[in-house]
């Protein structure tokens, strides 16, 4: 896979940054940072990981992520295609301490508060798309005004959906973050194979029982639930992008038992695999 390409925007001479991220495919890079992040997908489809949630993304999706909310976007390369997103990152005080406490910015402050769980706009309003994709071409002052305009439009548009469950909180300290990062990276690569609690716990040097409690407390769900979510999203991608029989999709997603696969798929997608394939391709 080619290294990430980022077309930089405001950076050294501004209190925030923006860029266009473009790759053959987005590599899995589970991480978090102290800045808010706005990501608008402009090309390509793949899987979005935010906190406890794993789900597909498509062009036009926009997410606003709060500080220290773990996330990544991952996709597979395909012939003639590219993965691209417009990204802006800023700290809460990038316009000065107390800026968003001013009454005229109350709606933006509320939007930023909601972003602690991740806020999804799908699809993003067209005016916001134009603003975000054009940010890297603007001078720092103009880009800053434009970013504030985009945030205001999103706040007034509303209709955003939270991405993580109410029980999820960002990693409270570096050790917890390191352990969860290690586990999530491993599961992203290994979920299509048998996953044993004892093996995953050993990755972070914990006893299985202690790890099970740790994972549920930190991620807001059990290890089994998280693995099933990864597997079903893999199955969705295979159903959409291949002609594989349902039995092969199940096996490649990590399920050896077809009835178990069908049951889990129905639980998470509210439809059966064959119906999902037919519905998606009808669009």
TrEMBL record:
Please tell me whether the keyword Secreted is annotated for this protein: no
The uppermost taxa in this organism's lineage are: Bacteria, Bacillati, Actinomycetota, Actinomycetes, Kitasatosporales
The protein's matches in InterPro entries, at most eight in alphabetical order, are given as:
AraC-bd, Homeodomain-like_sf, HTH_AraC, RmlC-like_jellyroll, RmlC_Cupin_sf
Q: Which UniProt keywords apply?
A: DNA-binding, Transcription, Transcription regulation
What are the transmembrane regions?
A: none
Q: What is this protein called?
A: AraC family transcriptional regulator
- The segment(s) forming the HTH araC/xylS-type domain are 181-279
